[in-house]
# Entry
Amino acid sequence: MNFSRMKVLIQNPENLLYLQGLGQWSTNVSEALDFGNSDNAIQYCAAHGIAPMHVVLKWEGMPNSIVIPIASVRPQSGEAKTTRARKHA
# Structure
């Protein structure tokens, strides 16, 4: 098993679904967008008005995840950063 590959996901805290695409949610981790790092995930949520949410750190082959609750996010003024989300199967 490969324990080193980590996915960074966004999860809806109300229904525990994972963000698959803007306005699309899934129960399947493999269909979720992988943001690469928590900063990208939080910036994406700020840019698209997604809050509250969880940032989930999930390792392949591991039964448990780290869940970071985020109550609200605000876009940073003057910054136009692009996030690079990857979709992994």
In short: The chain has a mean pLDDT of 85. Residues 6-87 form one domain. The CA atoms of residues 55 and 68 lie 5 Å apart. Residues 38-48 form the longest helix (11 residues).
